[in-house]
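Service request form, structural biology core

Requester: graduate student, group of Dr. S.
Request type: structure prediction, single chain
Budget code: on file
Notes: please return the result as structure tokens.

Sequence provided:
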Amino acid sequence: MAASPDAATVAAVLQLQTERREKLCSLLALGVKFGLVTVGAISLVTLSFAYQERLERHGELAAVVDVETGKLRNLQQRFDRLFTLGGDQRLMDEQDQWIAPNRLRVIWR
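Core staff response, request fulfilled:
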């Protein structure tokens, strides 16, 4: 006849099973946490590269805007000078490709 285990043996077996389950759950939770930390770190690295690229693009665009702003100011000053006294004469002096009065245009072919 088979002897049934006593209560102390059953309790010890149940306690071992519970400890194994707790260790398994702890390892599973540790793996999930490690995965989340890894995903977070990779995301931060990716975001830092994207941020650096945007900073470089912003620098390039700011330089272009500065150059174009300078050109605009120069053109605005030239335009404003046209409406001062003698502005029409300054315009004519700048346009040296215009034909002078009583002259014929010669086109070479």
